[in-house]
Design brief:
Strand content: 25-35%
Order of helices and strands: HEEEEEEEEE
Strand order of the largest sheet: 2-9-8-4-5
Shape: elongated
Helix content: 10-25%
Structural class: alpha+beta
Number of helices: 1
Distance between the termini: 91 Å
Radius of gyration: 29 Å
Number of strands: 9
Largest sheet: 5 strands, mixed
Length: about 160
């Protein structure tokens, strides 16, 4: 006759400690993932853009400017200003007015952009410090004095 030994039974206390350690480890991993997600930089946000706070009637008019003030960019960089709804703008770059037909305007989002290129007012941005003047005005019929938003950046 063969005797088989009964399997060793873990003590109740040891099972509870093991489960507690596993639970704490799982929660630590979840907390680490949340922390990492909060500190992750998004790839679709440009480094050369900045959010400004030009004040209008009760709220900000300019939501974003690119290139960011005092940043360094290449000579073919796109110039962009994102305004709140009901606003539009004309651009002057380094004293050169940009014709409206060379601006990329998205009325639904009030984004105005200019990309230098062949046959345009500027084929490329001049090297050194470049300043942009955006003459911002309302387009919804509300009477409001136009504003000039100016920012400068460096072209390498």
């Amino acid at each position: 006759m063969t005797t088989t030994q009964a399997p060793e039974v873990e003590s109740r206390r040891r099972v509870l400690v093991r489960r507690l350690v596993i639970t704490v480890a799982v929660f630590a991993c979840i907390a680490g993932l949340i922390l990492a997600a909060q500190h992750t930089r998004r790839g679709d946000v440009e480094d050369d853009a900045t959010v400004t706070g030009i004040q209008g009637t009760g709220n900000s008019i300019v939501e974003l400017q690119a290139p960011a003030p005092e940043s360094s960019v290449l000579s073919q960089a796109q110039i962009l200003i994102d305004l709140t709804t009901n606003y539009d703008a004309t651009l002057t770059v380094q004293g050169v007015p940009i014709p409206d037909d060379q601006l990329q305007k998205t009325p639904a989002t009030s984004v105005i952009a200019f990309t230098p290129g062949a046959g345009k007012a500027l084929e490329k941005l001049p090297q050194g410090r470049v300043c942009v003047n955006a003459n911002v005005f309302r387009i919804d019929g509300t009477v409001e004095d136009p504003r000039t938003v100016t920012w400068c950046f460096n072209v390498t």
